[in-house]
């Protein structure tokens, strides 16, 4: 077994916008796109549904159905277990597992506002807003909103992604706390499946 962990400071310093980019930068992990699924991973000779994907330790089901290019702005870290994770995470993790940990609210006496804006090649645009702070002495909130879109490197391959994560912390005493969270993600992935090998007039 081996465990790799990359935190939010490292992800931001490297300009990694989604979890797929994070895993692409790790040793021994392959990722790829397929017309039948958004993304799939491979490690230690296993691929697709043999790699378990979790969000805050909760299984997202079959990877080939449920893996989406989740934004990194709302994540505190990404944990990768290489080797069978069946004992830890249940059935389906024979090759390894990927656990995405969202940022949580914390009790404090001040409010926080974070903003990250970016623009890049192929008209790729990213807007990220984060808000956190206290509601009372025992309640705190956190809101992370992200929107990424790009025109793509070929015609008609535009992509869009929206991600909203809401979290509420209730800590009635020092040794007891409850976290309620809501995670919304909507994406429109590129519909590019390859360039035709014959001219358009012949096709």
Q: Which geometry do the CA atoms define?
A: globular
Question: Order of SSEs, N→C?
Answer: EHHEEEEEHEHEEEEEE
Task: Enumerate the strands of the largest sheet in spatial order, edge to edge or round the barrel.
Answer: 1-7-8-5-6
Q: Give me the number of helical elements.
A: 4
Largest sheet: 5 strands, mixed
Our Rg estimate from Cα atoms comes to: 19 Å
Spans of at least 5 consecutive residues whose pLDDT stays below 50 are: none
The CA-CA distance between the termini, in Å, is: 50 Å
Proportion in helices: under 10%
Number of strands: 13
Beta strand %: over 45%
* Class derived from helix and strand content: mainly beta
Q: Taking all residues together, what is the mean pLDDT?
A: 80
Walk me through what this model shows.
This protein has helices at 8-13, 19-24, 63-66, 86-89; strands spanning 2-7, 30-34, 37-43, 46-47, 51-55, 58-59, 75-82, 96-102, 112-120, 124-134, 139-150, 159-173, 176-188. The strands form 3 sheets. Strands 1-7-8-5-6 form a 5-stranded mixed beta sheet. It is mainly beta and 203 residues long. The model has no long low-confidence stretch (mean pLDDT 80).
């Amino acid at each position: 077994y081996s465990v790799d962990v990359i935190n939010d400071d490292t992800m931001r310093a490297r300009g990694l916008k989604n979890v797929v980019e994070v895993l692409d930068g790790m040793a021994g992990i392959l990722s790829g796109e397929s017309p039948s699924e958004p993304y799939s991973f491979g490690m230690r000779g296993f691929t697709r549904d043999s790699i378990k994907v979790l969000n805050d330790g909760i299984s997202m089901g079959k990877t080939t159905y449920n893996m989406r290019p989740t934004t990194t702005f709302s994540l505190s870290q990404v944990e990768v277990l290489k080797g069978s994770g069946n004992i830890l995470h249940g059935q389906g993790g024979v090759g390894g597992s990927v656990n995405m940990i969202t940022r949580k609210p914390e009790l404090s006496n001040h409010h926080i506002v974070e903003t990250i804006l970016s623009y890049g090649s192929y008209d790729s645009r990213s807007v990220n807003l984060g808000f956190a702070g206290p509601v009372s002495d025992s309640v705190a909130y956190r809101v992370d909103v992200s929107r990424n879109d790009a025109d793509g490197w070929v015609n008609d391959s535009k992509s869009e992604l929206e991600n909203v994560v809401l979290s509420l912390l209730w800590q009635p005493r020092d040794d007891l706390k409850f976290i309620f969270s809501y995670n919304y993600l909507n994406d429109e992935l590129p519909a590019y499946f390859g360039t035709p090998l014959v001219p358009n007039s012949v096709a």
